[in-house]
Amino acid sequence: MSIDCLVLGAGQEVGKSCVVVTIGGKRVMFDCGMHMGHHDSQRYPDFARILAAAPGATDFTSAISCVVITHFHLDHIGALPYFTEVCGYHGPIYMTYPTKALAPLMLEDYRKVMVDHRGEEEQYSYEDIDRCMKKVIPLDLKQTIQVDKDLVIRAYYAGHVLGAAMIYAKVGDAAMVYTGDYNMTPDRHLGAAQIDHLKLDLLITESTYAKTVRDSKHAREREFLKAVHKCVSGGGKVLIPAFALGRAQELCILLDDYWERMNLKIPIYFSAGLTIQANMYYKMLIGWTSQKIKDSYTVHNPFEFKHVCDFQRSFINDPEPCVLFATPGMISGGFSLEVFKRWAPSEKNLVTLPGYCVAGTIGHKLMSGKATRIDLDKETRIDVRCQIHQLSFSPHTDSKGIMDLTEFLSPSHVILVHGEKPQMAFLKDRIESELGMPCFYPANNETVSIPTAQNLKISATEKFITNCSTAQARDSPRKSNLICGNHLSGANGDEKLAEGILLMEKCKAPKILCEDELLQFLGTEGHSVQFEPLLRSRIGEAETGIVDDLASE
């Protein structure tokens, strides 16, 4: 038996995460994202390949057992309304409660940016988003969901953004984990990823920062605050392109606290009214945040910002210094692009990019080198004279975190997604050489087949277990003993060898029993063979004869 993984998105790239896994005859779609850097047919996964890989299926609903969404970022959920309302998938969809609450805000905000501001053809409507989200079944952390009689899924805390989850799936003896995006270090408003030690055939992990090991969080925060303070002190404006949910809240907490300590009066703005709704949900979903926030929110809710207020479009040309969070992140369009056009030509201003920017976005072009001019299209050119500050406040784990999680879970096989090809190749070599696990990093539209282990359950008779315990008690009379799962361990944790006889009967479960139990089962008597120490006795006789001879001499 094997696990077949069809990578429809995030294969050797970051964007449109979508992996369709066939496990024990069940087909699960993990994430259904869109690519922020494409505005053509490459924006969405090639869903037609699902039917090609599912012989006998007449539509997507019959081809797929369920869809599981790991979190609300558009590169993981942006294609879901299209898949359900346009392509016609009507099966179960699972995501956590915070993701279900926040995803409609992200989807509608993006739809308005693309259709209302850029004039693109509408891929799905507001009504489509609404109908799609009504089909969602919410799940809680560590809640075991029986999708059908064979397929089980379970969500684990992933950090990254509010409500993000790693997903465990199991059919029969075959088991796997799909991480989605995760963070192995806590930040100001979220905890680190947490998962049980599971027996896995396969781990599918993101690899955004496959070669990067980050500096300390405090050093990065100091560098960010220093750059922002220097710019506004010199009369400049700071543009922070960020999505309305996630890094925006993290950086707002950081700046709001710094402004309070430094008694600064320069305004901090947020461009999207969406953030008011988002912050309302963050206040309601405190239980999904970091332990520090959960412990202190009754005294002070950190999402009630004292120094952050709404931005009006009329403020764009104001000469006074300010800090502005503008959506969307990556400067992929919308209001952040509009502000960038106005502020980029001034040397006094600063654009700080707090996270990863996918290829094809203006943010990616700015991160790739010192851009002096950006051509948006044949008619629009932006002169870039402002300062560009790139700082990793990304909620993705770094290479150390990926290696730590992989070593902890110890899967039989690893598949890397959501990363750049050269860095993925480097990480694959590390996983194989240091951890000894076969590792793959397929491109989009490629399938990888992973062999799975077939476990055989064997029972043990009560007499066999009793005899094992008694034998150990004789070896260590002062130590208690414990039968643990599939091995026998002593009080000091050492594993002990237990001898028994494996009995396998046709159409019956195999079991381990004692020797006399086997004889009773066979209906026969026991026989023993004894060996006389003849050689030793003859040597003794010879030695006696030699002594007698010497004595007579």
Word description of this protein:
- This protein is an alpha/beta fold and 553 residues long.
- It folds into 3 domains: 2-213 and 395-449, Metallo-beta-lactamase, Chain A (4-Layer Sandwich); 217-390, Rossmann fold; 456-468 and 499-553, no CATH class.
- The strands form 6 sheets. A 7-stranded mixed sheet has the order 6-5-4-3-2-1-22. It has a 7-stranded mixed sheet with strand order 7-8-9-10-11-20-21, covered by helices on one side. Strands 14-13-15-12-16-19 form a 6-stranded parallel sheet, with helices on both faces.
- A hairpin with a 7-residue loop joins strand 27 and strand 28.
- The longest helix is centred in the first third of the chain and has 21 residues, at 97-117.
- Across the major sheet, the strand order is 6-5-4-3-2-1-22
CATH topology of the largest domain: Metallo-beta-lactamase, Chain A
User: How would you classify the helix and strand content by structural class?
Assistant: alpha/beta
Q: What is the CA-atom radius of gyration, in angstroms?
A: 32 Å
CATH C-level category of the largest domain = Alpha Beta
Query: CATH homologous superfamily name of the largest domain?
Result: Ribonuclease Z/Hydroxyacylglutathione hydrolase-like
**Taking all residues together, what is the mean pLDDT?**
86
The CATH architecture of the largest domain would be 4-Layer Sandwich
The count of DSSP E runs of length 2 or more, i.e. the number of strands, is: 28
Helical coverage, percent range: 25-40%
The CA-CA distance between the termini, in Å, is: 83 Å
Number of domains: 3
Overall shape: it is: elongated
Sequence stretches where pLDDT stays below 50 over 5 or more residues: 477-491
Major sheet size, sense and barrel closure = 7 strands, mixed
DSSP helical segment count: 17
The fraction of residues in strands falls at 15-25%
